[in-house]
Amino acid sequence: MNYSQRLHHVIPGGAHTYSRGDDQYPENAPQILERGQGAYVWDADGNKFLDYGLGLRSITVGYDYPEITQAAIDEIHKGVNLTRASVTELHAAELMMSLFPWADMVKFGKNGSTVTTAAIKLARAYTGRKHVALCAEHPFFTYDDWFIGTTPMDKGIPNETKTFSHKFHYNNIDSLRKIFEENPSQIACVILEPTTFHSPCENGKDGFLNKPSCANCSCIKKNFLHEVKSLCKEYGAVFILDEMITGFRFDLQGAMKLFDIEPDLATFGKGMANGFPLAALIGKREIMELGSINKEGAERLFLISTTHGSEMTALGAFIKTVEVYKKNNVTDQLWNYGKKLIEGANEIAKRLEISEYFEFGGYACSPIYITKNVNKEISLDFRTLFSQEMIKHGVLIPWVALSFAHQEKELEITLHAIYKSLEVYKKALKGDINDYLVGRSIKPVFRKFN
Questions:
Q1: Residue 184 buriedness (CB in 10 A; 0-12 / 13-18 / 19+)
Q2: CA dihedral sign, ordered 435, 437, 440, 444
């Protein structure tokens, strides 16, 4: 059996996250990876790839960054996981609060699903309501029922559970207001990402090459995030921002700083510990304290209780990651590199006269690429073709995640690979894509059937 067959033989889906599944990559992608260093990964056969997957966006400084790795090793030598709360745990919590002064308390976990669901539980307990409003354009919040029940992959989710979740649309405040009006005094909370690749400001445009700054903006009340916050206040719902992707990428203090918005609760993960397993729920004391145990006579709320939530390896990595961010201005590097990548890729597409069919866009710190067919329709076939050709030139780019390890050399390698890949893309536009595409196309994660 090859690596893929062996993986599927012992692991349902062949991986522990759907984004690592075979159906998310072209058939020439490496079936299994052995190690990563800086901005590169190697497969089990020793083949080297410049990587833009970056551990599903969890690596923001670089694979095996020496200072961060050593900080984690130092915590291992302290015993990894102690019987009571650790000094490292306290330092990490205090550091998190220093980054987000609007928040008062933090609860750590090991994955984003844990902390987003904890936020929902707090909101329901705080308001005494059951229903949740979530943004339809944001692809993933949790593996728990309140979200998965809204997707096509809802097998195993009770129908009655599905009725408690409602989807609204980003930059459409009326779609959210309608949910409140149709479910009077029933909406416990609203949860969304601050942004993906659309501006929440009516004066903004889709995608930014430079960091946005909404502080002291005259139209701040028309900013979608501020409209959502205002609506939550009007209807007594908890306002939750999910910064799983934007946090520690848009800014060390999250996209909320750039958009000048303070939620009631916020969730983080991905790059906060440079790949080590750590997530966080932060929020205002009056809500977070529902999970406390030192309020005499108060009804208890079982919030998050995980044996490994306080293991010191990831917490030590988080503390050092913040230090590295500050010392090296990591987020500035992400914005600067992304700007050059977007401009360079789009110049190549323009030169090849296919800019109407292929485009890099989004925020410079978190770019996206858009692939279209000859009819100018979004195409997974052409996305597969582009990714396939990039792999032939040593670049693994299922999406575009950036790290501090991506420097000028990596930009040069990437742009050369883009040029060679788009030459094939152009030929496929003029002919039959099946003459160029090897094997099946990638598929959406959330689909009803295999």
A1: exposed
A2: negative
In a domain, 442, yes or no: no
Q: Tell me the backbone φ, ψ of residue 427, rounded to 5 degrees.
A: -65, -40
Same domain, yes or no: 26 and 142:
no
| Phi, psi for residue 278 in degrees, rounded to 5 | -155, 135
Please count the structural domains in the chain: 2
pTM of this prediction exceeds 0.90 = yes
pLDDT for the residue numbered 297: 79
The per-residue pLDDT for range 267-296, each reduced to its tens digit, is 999 999 999 999 999 999 999 999 888 888
User: Which residues form the domain of 357?
Assistant: 3-64+329-435
Distance CA(183)–CA(25), nearest Å, equals 41
In this prediction, residue 36 has a pLDDT band, given cuts at 50, 70 and 90, of very high
Do 128 and 151 belong to one domain?
Answer: yes
pLDDT, one tens digit per residue, over 67-92 is: 999 999 999 999 999 999 999 999 99
57 and 81 co-located in one domain: no
Pairing mode of beta strands 238-242, 187-192 = parallel
Which of 299, 327, 355 lies at the terminal end of a domain, its last residue?
Answer: 327
The candidate with the shortest Cα–Cα distance to 171, out of 206, 132, 211, is 206
Q: What is the pLDDT of residue 245?
A: 96
Tell whether the model's pLDDT for residue 261 goes beyond 70: yes
Find all residues with CB under 8 Å of 102, minimum gap 6, and list them: 262, 284
Q: Cβ distance 153 to 447 under 8 Å?
A: yes
In a domain? residue 119: yes
Instruction: Give CA separation, 40 vs 337, 399, 403, 408, in Å.
Output: 16, 15, 11, 14
Closest CA to 28 of 432, 424, 445: 424
Identify the sign of the CA torsion 314, 315, 319, 320: negative
